[in-house]
UniProtKB/TrEMBL annotation, chain A:
Residues 78-266 form the ABC transmembrane type-1 domain. This is ABC transporter permease. Belongs to the binding-protein-dependent transport system permease family. InterPro entries: MetI-like, MetI-like_sf. The chain crosses the membrane at residues 26-47, 59-77, 83-101, 113-137, 149-169, 203-224, 244-266. The lineage of its organism: Bacteria, Pseudomonadati, Pseudomonadota, Alphaproteobacteria, Hyphomicrobiales.
UniProtKB/TrEMBL annotation, chain B:
GO terms for molecular function: ABC-type polyamine transporter activity; ATP binding; ATP hydrolysis activity. Its EC number is 7.6.2.11. Gene3D superfamilies: 2.40.50.100, P-loop containing nucleotide triphosphate hydrolases. This is Spermidine/putrescine import ATP-binding protein PotA. Belongs to the ABC transporter superfamily. Spermidine/putrescine importer (TC 3.A.1.11.1) family. Keywords: ATP-binding, Cell membrane, Membrane, Nucleotide-binding, Translocase, Transport. It catalyses: ATP + H2O + polyamine-[polyamine-binding protein]Side 1 = ADP + phosphate + polyamineSide 2 + [polyamine-binding protein]Side 1.
Length: 281, 358, 255
């Protein structure tokens, strides 16, 4: 032990000073309550009085659900939403998957720019897209038609499908495709026999959430649907102010349950993939 | 004076035993290396000393105080991580000042102390830089300076040079050795690199499957391994199984598949099954008729030339392949030489008792 | 396929600069001098700013708490953020009208307790409450991603050096999460600029936001030129902010 130690002159340098701070958990749980309670509170109300909102509910009725299922306009709107959601999900899934694969596996120079353009509807305000589609369909004479709704929703869903499927493609081992091509498989064969089966979990999750997004979509539908093609959210939106009966509580409950089912379904698909990966290794 | 004392420390993860009832003492000013393959428990042991992993049983003492239940931050230790763990948003100066600020040292004094340690690690003018503007070696010096600045009684180093390339690693090894001897700090160092352990340590604690395989100076571990694992982990070894056929005060005679082997006198009883270890660098090529204690004849099956060293692979007439290592010279045997003679002196035969369970 | 998006946008640009097919800046000029537009513009900025900041304040502890859990527990907590995230905004807004309304849960409870009641709906408070609720998950995700990407050894190193949890948070975790917070802010801000259902259901006359004004011009006054001009302004503002977000993401790597 020579000079530097002495030069440093390091003695004991006191005790660390600090406090405890256990608040994070409390704050996080308050936030969870704030996030979840509004939708949960609607559930008991949906089984309550059918003329006005009473909380806590004094009785248990299925009246509001009965009312919903016996009112032809509500049923028509629900059917319309399901139809639009199914069709636009199918189209967006097809187009989006092809686009995602094309982008991920190409070495195009404009790849980045193309991606920005393709994904921008995900973030720019829905009302801008809605107004654009509205003026466009007005010009080509499709306003108010189911075709217009399906096209509009497809535009709205595609970026989401691309993002989800691209993430799935990024996880794939590209050398498997190279191997297939070395073995003589053509591009189409590789895509259908090698890529798509591996992408199944991403496709399931993209499809489920696309359906939900379309089924719940309000702004675009509000602008481009007509009296005969009203979707469920549009009917809900226009009836919030006018409807005296809390029938919306029943509809909201069912929509929330749909969200839960779809989330759980997607979670299940994700776990299946995890298990498949675990079984492989 | 004892800095760290571990008494019967165990750590279990479910059914997996990471550390198995381990005792260890680290003396003040000592450089102790925990050496072992991955999964041997060396990092778990370091984390138990640091207080980041609680032991499942046993006690930990630092500076004579029982710290088993004391949180990490109160133990007054220093630690250097493999990935440096420098705060990316703070300058070099602020990184080094951090432990002093925790201790409420006056800013004026902080400036003096930080300047001093920067001087010690040869980074005098880099106090204003951000860590990402430094090279890997410089970052690790900052991490070391950050430990030295508050003079903890013990510095833990968790594979600190693992992320650096070979040349830089050797350079920093010398620097750490210099700092250790100059400053007289106590260091517990974790590595899986045997050369690093041999270079740096006062003592090496060789670990395997959660137990201490052997504890001793680098010389003891290299020249007198107590277990086959030790012999194979540090340096290269030829391993043979043998039976003691004769044991006298002058020598031990053993019998194995390649014939009779002579070894220095041991305490092993006649008839016992043992393992014998011979280092490749102790085996020599023999000229016809030459006798040095142990001689074998066999077939030369391969020769590899590794720059300054040449290895020969010889299959004895009755046994598995032995390796011998020699400084390269011009009289090397060519591959396909057929029958050759090799041998080693009796003092180079290491006899290792077979212990149940190892 | 991207044409499906670009063509409609082209229509907006075309309409915003033309009236009856003739090029003009009249749309923008009259907007900027219209007290209604100017008021709505500032209202939108104000609501977006407050709602984003509150959402970040609510979302940060959530992200922090989730980031400190083991992987198994973390996915359970994540479900509690993802469920509200995937619940229809219409449902959430409706729920807030039920909770905050004059005959709503809170006021009914206050009445039962003989406490003074509050007007919490058809005013700024209602819009902010529901908007914040909608935005919190969007604030949680980027912050959580940032926190999870932080080197866990930094906290350990600080702990060995003697730092307590509060100091580790304020000196290390929080400063390092800056880019995540900024990304979360831009994301929530852009999203709130486009809010449509929430201000319509929970706001009063003075809480109209830009999306509602576009709707008003399109539907009630059939002034497509003005509606398109607002959409262009909205689009432009969002685009600038999103480019900013892209740069924030680019610099995130150093952490």
């Amino acid at each position: 032990m020579n000079s530097p130690a002495r030069k440093l002159n390091l003695g004991a340098i006191g005790k660390p000073v600090h406090w405890r701070f256990p608040l994070t958990g409390i704050m996080a749980w308050s936030a969870f309550a704030f996030l979840l309670l509004p939708s949960l509170i609607i559930i008991p109300i949906s089984f309550g009085n059918k003329n006005q909102i009473v909380f806590p509910p004094t009785a248990f009725h299925w009246d509001l659900y009965y009312l919903f299922f016996t009112t032809s306009t509500w049923i028509a709107a629900t059917t319309q939403s399901a139809k639009v959601a199914l069709l636009s999900t199918a189209i967006a899934l097809t187009l989006g998957t092809l686009a995602a694969y094309g982008i991920e596996r190409s070495r195009l120079r404009g790849k980045q720019l193309l991606l920005v353009v393709l994904l921008s509807p995900l973030l720019i305000p829905g009302v801008v897209t809605a107004l654009g589609l509205y003026s466009y369909f007005a010009v080509i004479g499709l306003s108010g038609s189911t075709t217009a709704l399906v096209m509009g929703h497809t535009v709205f869903l595609c970026p989401f499908v691309i993002v989800t499927v691209s993430a799935g493609i990024k996880e794939l081992d590209g050398s498997i495709e190279t191997a297939a091509s070395v073995m003589g498989a053509g591009r189409f064969k590789i895509f259908t026999a090698v890529v798509l089966p591996q992408l199944r979990p991403s496709l399931v999750s993209a499809g489920l959430f696309s359906f939900l997004m379309s089924f719940d979509e309000l702004v675009i539908s509000w602008f481009i649907s007509g009296a005969q093609t009203t979707t469920l959210p549009v009917k809900m939106y226009s009836s919030v102010q006018t409807e005296t009966s809390p029938i919306l509580a029943a509809i909201s409950t069912m929509l929330t349950i749909l969200s839960v089912i779809i989330c759980l379904g997607a979670e299940g698909a994700r776990n299946l993939r995890k298990k498949a990966v675990a079984a492989d290794s | 004076m004892t800095v760290v004392e571990l008494k019967g420390v165990s750590r279990k993860y479910g059914n997996i035993v990471a550390l198995d009832c381990l005792d260890l003492v680290v003396e003040k000013g000592e450089f102790l290396t925990l050496l072992g393959p991955s999964g041997s428990g060396k990092t778990t042991l370091l984390n138990i000393i640091a207080g980041m992993t609680p032991p499942s049983s046993g006690r930990v003492e630092i500076d004579g105080r029982d710290v088993t239940d004391m949180p990490t931050r109160q133990r007054g230790l220093g630690m250097v991580f493999q990935n440096y763990a420098l705060m990316p948003h703070m300058t070099v100066f602020d990184n080094i000042a951090f432990p002093l600020r925790v201790r409420r040292v006056r800013e004026q004094e902080i400036r003096i102390r930080v300047a001093e340690v920067l001087d010690i690690v040869n980074l005098r003018d880099l106090g204003g830089r951000k860590p990402r503007e430094l090279s890997g070696g410089q970052q690790q010096r900052v991490a070391i300076a950050r430990c030295l600045v508050y003079k903890p009684s013990l510095i833990l180093m968790d594979e600190p040079l693992g992320a650096l390339d070979k040349k830089l690693r050797e350079q920093l090894q010398l620097e750490i050795k210099r700092l250790h001897s100059d400053l007289g700090v106590t260091v517990v160092y974790v590595t899986h690199d045997q050369e690093e352990a041999l270079t740096l340590s006062d003592r090496i604690c060789l670990m395997n499957t959660g137990r201490i395989e052997q504890l001793g100076t680098p010389h003891e571990l290299y020249f007198a391994p107590e277990t086959v694992f030790g012999a194979q982990f540090l340096g290269e070894s030829n391993v043979l199984t043998a039976t003691v056929s004769e044991s006298s005060s002058e020598e031990t005679v053993l019998r194995c598949s390649v014939g009779t082997i002579r070894a220095p006198t041991t305490s092993v009883a006649t008839g016992a099954e043992v393992t014998i270890v011979v280092r490749p660098e102790n085996i020599r090529r023999l000229a016809p008729g030459e006798c040095i204690g142990n001689e074998l004849s066999g077939e030369l099956i391969d020769t590899t030339f590794v720059g300054g060293v040449t290895r020969y692979y010889v299959r004895p007439d009755n046994g598995s392949v032995l390796v011998l290592k020699e400084l390269t010279n011009r009289t090397a045997w060519a591959a396909g030489s057929g029958k050759v003679r090799i041998g080693w002196s009796a003092e180079h035969t290491l006899v290792i008792q077979n212990i149940a369970g190892r | 396929m991207s044409l499906g998006f670009i063509v409609p946008l082209g229509f907006i640009f075309f309409r915003s600069f033309t009236i009856d097919g003739v090029f003009t800046l009249e749309g923008f000029r009259s907007l900027l001098t219209s007290p209604l537009f100017v008021r709505v513009f500032w209202t939108t900025l104000e609501i977006s700013l407050i709602a984003s900041i509150v959402a970040l304040a609510v979302g940060y502890p959530v992200a922090l708490h989730i980031s400190r859990q083991s992987e198994r527990v973390r996915s359970l907590y994540l479900i509690m953020v993802l469920l509200p995230f995937w619940t229809s905004i219409l449902v959430k807004s409706y729920a807030f009208t039920v909770i905050l309304g004059d005959a709503g849960l809170i006021n009914t409870a206050l009445r039962a307790l003989r406490l003074p009641q509050f007007e919490m709906i058809f005013n700024r408070f209602g819009v902010l409450a529901a908007s914040t609720n909608f935005l919190v998950p969007f604030a949680v995700f980027p912050i959580l991603a940032n926190l999870l990407a932080q080197d866990p050894n930094l906290g350990k190193a600080a702990e060995v050096m003697g730092a307590g949890p509060l100091r580790i948070f304020w000196r290390i975790t929080f400063p390092l999460s800056g880019s995540g917070v900024l990304a979360g802010f831009i994301l929530t801000f852009v999203l709130s600029l486009g809010l449509f259902a929430t201000p319509a259901l929970l706001g009063g006359r003075h809480d109209m936001m830009m999306a509602n004004l576009i709707d008003f011009y399109t539907r009630d006054t059939l002034n497509w030129n003005a509606a398109s001009a607002i959409a262009v302004i909205l689009l432009f503002t969002s685009a600038v902010l999103l480019l900013l977000l892209n740069r924030v993401r680019g610099t995130e790597k150093f952490a």
